[in-house]
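User: Show me an example of a complex going from sequences to structure tokens.

Assistant: Sure. Here are the input components:
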Amino acid sequence: MLDVSDLVTAYGKIEALKGVTLNAERGRITCLLGPNGAGKTTLMMSIAGILQPLRGSIRLEGAELRGLTPARIVRRGVALVPENRLVFPQMSVRENLLAGAYQRNDKAEIAADIERMYERFPRLRERREQLAGTLSGGEQQMLAVARALMSRPRVLLMDEPSLGLAPLVVAEIFRIVSELNRDGTTIFLVEQNARMALQVAHHFYLMEQGRVTFSGTPGQLAEDEVIQRAYLGARRAG
Amino acid sequence: MIDFVQNTIDGVMIGSSYALLALGFTLIFGVMRRLNLSYGPSIMIGAYLGTLVHVQFAAGPAVVVAVTVIGAVLAGVYVERLCFAPMATGAGIASMVSSFAIWMQLEQAAILVLPRHTYPFPPLATGAPLTLGPFLLRVDHLMMLTCALALSAGVQLVIYRSRFGLALRAIINNPVAAHLVGINVRAAIIGAFALASAVGGIAGYLVLATDQQVTSMFGMWATFKGLIAMMIGGLGSIPGAILGGLVLGIVEAHSQWYFGPQVRDLFAYVLLFACLVLRPGGLLGEPPPREPAVGRREA
């Protein structure tokens, strides 16, 4: 569904992505694991149109996304839950959700979707008039997910949703990820928490130093080795 | 005592024009986190076009106000395209310095078209001032105050109740996240400049109609007054802009009465200085916003 091929993104002269090829299949959870600095966030920001890749392509069901503005990419059906959540801290929970539906014009449907989000995330209903900056980390993560869902994406990108959250909250977030997927959302997830990610993923990729170094299903590689490489990168010979 | 109250009334009236100038300034600063020194001169472009249609075609107040506002909006968007859009991701200082350059450009362009020192501007209201007991109220000043209050309430409504306002607040909160939810950030910023310039254009019209003349010094004057009022009130705060404008007006009115017109501007700067030392964020200033976290880069 989402096909990235040979993508190169650079900061100045330093290539953070050195030709990345991967895809996220419709209706599945695809996971990208890798150590800090591997280029995972760069990849997400490139897909979302915040960063401009130098080469390669990003296709959604065959249609090229590279070169489109972030707003157009959202309209095509790709929404990113960014690393560190990036909720709008001085806006209420409800306004954050409204902003998530910015590309849509169907007022009644937007109101219905906000109601659906409150049903899925009851904590957000309790805090709907509260400023997003006053929420706990876990609540902010739920808000960031709900905000992204408000655009009714065909593919949901999530960049390290477990970052900085307590283990119980992390379990809750992954429960939500599975649930969203069961309801039909295609998910492409970047994670550091390899153990959790492998439990929900249908397919996963390992990324090291700007390149994809493994592609397979959980179980195809011993979990110890995945974790070793996801946290530390591959051991080098010599 | 009567003098004191009368000065305060005059200060509030004049201050309401400062408040409008500060309102435009604070809109741009709130969204961009950058200073637009060309704000006053772009209002002056509108004012010069206004006086041009007044002098050439004997246009009345309605036409003059429309021309002034449209001219200010066009000049404001021109400044955005030239000084802010190309440097959106660069250093803030680059935008400020280039807005200074455009200030000079706009001022010279205005002087080339209308080279005399002063040009007439149609008055808003003529006739005797209203009397309220021992106090005098100029009708045009009252109109200025009414406009300032109505416009600031209108801008507040736009910011907090409209879709455009939602986009602006999202950008102020976190520009990267604003992109991610599908807000066309560039278009919204142009809209913010246009709105700020329209408010500035109305402020400029009100001030000049009260003075009944316009000079090429007006651009600098508007930038200074707007900037000082904004900094007193609090950077990026709409109620702060109104309060800052009124405080500045009142302090000026009293200092002019007690110490004379030459000392008036000195007091304005003393007030600004005191404010920067005692309350650097301004009277109603918000704490500086958090930096967007996405600046972090994976190498």
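The lines above are the inputs; the final block is the predicted structure for all two components together. The CA atoms of residues 2 and 133 of chain B lie 10 Å apart.
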